[in-house]
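Milestone M4 deliverable, item 7.
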Amino acid sequence: MAVNLVNLENVTVAHGTRLLMDSVSLGVSEGDRIGVVGRNGGGKTTLLKTLIKVEEPHSGRVTHTSGLRVGVLTQDVRVDVRLTAHQAILGATAEHTWAGDARVREVLDGLGLHDVGLDSVVSTMSGGERRRVALASLLVQEWDLLVLDEPTNHLDVEGVAWLAAHLKQRSPQQAHLVVTHDRWFLDEVNSTTWEVHDGVVDAYEGGYSAYVLARAERDRMASTAEQKRLQLVKKELAWLRRGPPARTSKPQFRIDAANALIADEPPARDDIALQRFSAARLGKTVYELHDVSLAFEKRVLFDHVDWNFGPGDRVGIVGVNGAGKSTMLKMLVGQQEPDTGRVVVGQTVKPAYLSQEVAELDPTLRVLEAVEQVAKVVDLGGGKTIGASSLADRFGFTGNAQWTRVGDLSGGERRRLQILRLLMGEPNVILLDEPTNDLDIDTLTALEDLLDGWPGTLLVVSHDRYFLERVTTVTASLMGDGTVKALPGGVEQYLAERVRAEPASAPKSKGGGDSRAAKKELSKVEREIGKLDKRERELHAELAEKAADFAAVARLDEELRTVQAEKASLEDTWLELSEGLY
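Output delivered:
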């Protein structure tokens, strides 16, 4: 029977007049893999803080099992800026000590900390690099419970895939609690989903797919004021069923019930009709790149690239951090000039560009005033229009929230307002740079629903695999070597291409060759060291258990010596290969 790690009994928490938790009772046991979802400001972070005893409840009780080890990643990175990355992650541990630990090497490699530089001082790092350092410092240690608040922020697609694999292979006794808007990640790493809303926490068996079905069924049975919300949930459910087979193959996802629920639900969008309408609004030319090259210092981002974006194209752009994804969008909207080549922009193009930075607005404006400052009514195409207040409502600014001052909004709410203002400008080309940052799942669903019927060209840079699959029809990647590659197989093909692109041999000297080639070679050795580590621990346990059996002790001791010798040899090999990286 699994040991209960954390228990909440009739816990109530309020912030001012807002009741965030109302007599909530729940627990976390050994091996639990829990994803937490809910609207921004709905109480997710408060729930985490209460669970780990950072915030005291107004009533009720929170208990931890004796000796509980809890590792926490908060949204606001807390790393001593005076330290180097090595000191922040590994303390005073010497290189020859941690270099022999396969788990440490895997974390540093998976999070790309060697590219950042272990000797780099935290104060010189970007926000994303600091967050990776904070995450690495957690993952190299042993915890009974990991609590992660938005762990995928600032990770590229490869980093998100690595983190998911890492969490899945942790010990079955270790538990985790993850708050994230990344729906692919929720499905991949969790076996339970908690929805935080209206002061309560509802638990659902399974990941995001199972949660969507269960929530749709709950809303259908309620069948009163939730009809509008149910339509969005049903539409997303239809997408889940028609999407990649792997997503709907989870045992918790009851396919028969899902098919009955969405039997009359039309496809999310008619791509051919939208392209036809888009061509009428945009003409033949949208964006064309002709022999474009661009480099910053010695880093080549684009090397004689030719690329056309046509009317109605819906393109998802992926690539490693620093490959030039944001720079590509900036070139298209005229904020960055190429070193050589031409960027041709169609005469009828009216773009809306969402950068990663939240645009500053007059903090004294009300939300609705900030939206109506752009336009009071927006044309969605096909004879459909929507007013500023109705669109604000769809994006979570309901009722009195539309009269909240901009200066009082959270980061996620400001991001929502930024997207709203862009859409009110009636663009015919939308360029989105990491649009899912700081948005909750309900807001993402509303944005996806709006984009479904939007007739224009859409370019999306994102690490959120679910969002890319949901709103785009083709995927392209910046491979990090100055080239662009079309990916008919989407993100899965991109990850496979990244592996195949690595040379077969490691660099022979520091700074030489391709660091990823060295990492590939190292990973093979690391897997073998990991197996030997496990066998060594097992042998020590067997020796302790059979201490009175001299024959068994002699046999086990001989095997232990062999394992230790093989491990030492592999560690020497690893150190030789690592010369080009460390």
